[in-house]
C-alpha cells in the first residue's frame, strides 16, 4: 500500500483538496438530472428506457458522494488526537442526523397535507421514498455504523480488495435474482426493501479508505495522464455504463428501481472519476465557474434534499396537467434539460437562503 498522506492544514493542501469540491459539484449536478422530469411516466413511457441509457454515465454521482464521505471520515480519524473512533462516529451521526430528521419531517408534513395516511408516510420513510433521493441519507447513516465496526479490518489492502470482491459477488447474485434464477421470492423481497438495502452500497467504504491512504499516488498518477488519456478513460467508463444499463433496462422492462446502482460499472466509475480529476486545481477554472463550483459543493447536502422535495411537488403538478400527454424523445430531452437547470438553480438559491436564516446545519 502506498504511503499514507497526513493532510496538513495549509494552503497548498487546500488547493490539493479542491478536486473533492469539484467532484461534489459535478456529482450534485448529476443527481439533480435524475429528478428533473416533472411529468407522469405515462407521458414518455416509450422513451424511458432510452433516457435511462443516455443518462447512465451520470450514475457515478451517488457512488462518488459515498466514497468522498468515507475518504473524509478516514481523514478525520487519522488526523484526530483522540484514540477512540467512537466519539468521532457519534459526532458524525449527529451531524448527519440533524438534516435527516429536518428534511424527513418537512417531507412527511407535506405528504400529510396531501392526504397520505400515517402508515403510508412511515413506509415512505423506511424505504427512503419520503422524498426523491431520501434513501441516500438512510444509506450513509447505516454505512457510518458499519464503517466503525470494519475499519480496523480494512487496514490491509488485501481486505479492502476482498470487500470489493464480495460486493461484486453480491451484484452477481442480484443479476441472477433479476434473471429469475432464485424464483420470484428473492426478487420480490429485494423490490420490497427498496434502495436503502445495504447490499448495494458497502463497497464505497473500502474505496473511500483506500483513496485516502493512497491520495498522493492518485494525484501523481492523475497528473501523469494526458488530457487525451483522461478523455479516453471517461469515454470508456461512459460506454460500459451505457452498455450495462441497456442490459438492466431490458431485464427490468425499463424500470430500474430499486436496482439503479446495482451495477459493476458504478463501482468502476469511482476510480475512473478520481484518477481523471484528482489533479484538478482552482487554477483550471475561470473565476465565475470556480465560484459556482464552490457554491454547489458547499451546499450539496441542501441541494440534494431540497431538489428531492421540489421534484415531488413539481411532479404532482405536472401529473395533473399532463396526465394525457405524450412526448417524443426530442421533446422529453429538451424538457429534462430545462427542468434540470431550473431545479438546480432553485435548490441552490433556497439552500443559501436557509443558511442565512441560521439553518446552516441542514444545508451544508
General description of the model:
By secondary structure, this protein is mainly α. It has one domain (11-362). The protein has helices at residues 11-16, 18-33, 48-54, 61-79, 86-113, 118-126, 135-150, 157-178, 183-193, 204-213, 215-224, 227-251, 264-277, 287-298, 300-322, 329-356. The protein is globular. The two termini are 33 Å apart. Residues 1-14 have low confidence and may be disordered.
The number of strands is 0
Termini, distance in Å?
A: 33 Å
Nearest-angstrom radius of gyration? 20 Å
Indicate the percent of residues in helices: over 70%
**Helix and strand composition category:** mainly alpha
Strand content: under 5%
Q: Provide the low-confidence segments as ranges.
A: 1-14
Q: Main beta sheet, described?
A: none
Task: Please work out how many helical segments DSSP would assign.
Answer: 16
Mean residue pLDDT: 93
How many domains make up the coordinates? 1
Q: What is the element string, with H for helices and E for strands?
A: HHHHHHHHHHHHHHHH
Q: Name the shape in a single word.
A: globular
Characteristic key phrases:
single chain; 364 residues; mainly alpha; 16 helices; disordered N terminus
Amino acid at each position: 500500500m502506498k504511503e499514507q498522506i497526513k493532510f496538513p492544514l495549509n494552503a497548498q493542501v487546500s488547493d490539493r483538496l479542491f478536486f473533492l469540491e469539484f467532484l461534489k459539484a459535478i456529482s450534485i449536478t448529476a443527481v439533480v438530472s435524475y429528478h428533473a422530469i416533472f411529468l407522469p411516466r405515462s407521458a414518455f413511457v416509450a422513451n424511458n428506457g432510452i433516457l435511462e441509457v443516455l443518462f447512465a454515465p451520470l450514475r457515478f454521482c451517488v457512488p462518488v458522494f459515498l466514497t468522498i464521505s468515507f475518504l473524509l471520515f478516514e481523514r478525520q480519524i487519522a488526523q484526530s488526537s483522540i484514540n477512540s473512533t467512537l466519539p468521532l462516529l457519534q459526532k458524525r451521526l449527529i451531524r448527519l442526523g440533524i438534516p435527516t430528521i429536518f428534511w424527513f419531517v418537512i417531507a412527511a408534513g407535506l405528504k400529510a397535507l396531501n392526504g397520505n395516511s400515517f402508515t403510508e408516510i412511515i413506509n415512505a420513510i423506511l424505504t427512503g421514498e419520503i422524498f426523491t433521493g431520501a434513501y441516500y441519507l438512510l444509506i450513509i447513516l447505516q454505512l457510518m455504523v458499519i464503517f466503525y465496526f470494519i475499519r480496523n479490518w480494512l487496514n490491509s489492502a488485501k481486505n479492502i480488495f476482498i470487500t470489493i470482491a464480495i460486493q461484486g459477488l453480491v451484484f452477481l447474485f442480484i443479476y441472477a435474482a433479476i434473471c429469475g434464477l432464485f424464483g420470484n421470492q428473492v426478487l420480490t423481497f429485494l423490490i420490497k426493501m427498496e434502495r436503502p438495502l445495504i447490499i448495494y452500497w458497502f463497497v464505497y467504504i473500502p474505496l473511500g479508505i483506500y483513496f485516502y491512504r493512497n491520495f498522493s499516488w492518485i494525484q501523481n498518477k492523475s497528473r501523469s495522464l494526458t488530457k487525451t488519456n483522461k478523455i479516453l478513460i471517461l469515454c470508456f467508463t461512459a460506454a460500459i455504463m451505457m452498455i450495462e444499463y441497456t442490459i438492466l433496462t431490458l431485464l427490468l422492462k425499463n424500470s430500474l428501481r430499486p436496482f439503479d446502482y446495482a451495477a459493476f460499472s458504478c463501482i468502476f466509475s469511482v476510480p475512473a472519476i478520481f484518477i481523471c480529476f484528482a489533479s484538478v486545481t482552482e487554477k483550471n477554472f475561470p473565476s465565475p465557474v470556480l465560484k459556482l463550483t464552490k457554491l454547489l459543493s458547499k451546499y450539496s447536502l441542501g441541494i440534494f434534499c431540497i431538489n428531492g422535495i421540489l421534484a415531488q411537488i413539481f411532479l404532482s403538478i405536472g401529473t395533473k396537467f399532463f396526465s394525457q400527454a405524450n412526448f417524443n424523445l426530442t421533446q422529453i430531452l429538451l424538457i429534462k434539460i430545462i427542468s434540470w437547470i431550473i431545479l438546480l438553480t432553485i435548490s441552490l438559491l433556497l439552500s443559501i437562503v436557509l443558511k442565512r436564516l441560521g439553518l446552516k446545519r441542514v444545508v451544508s
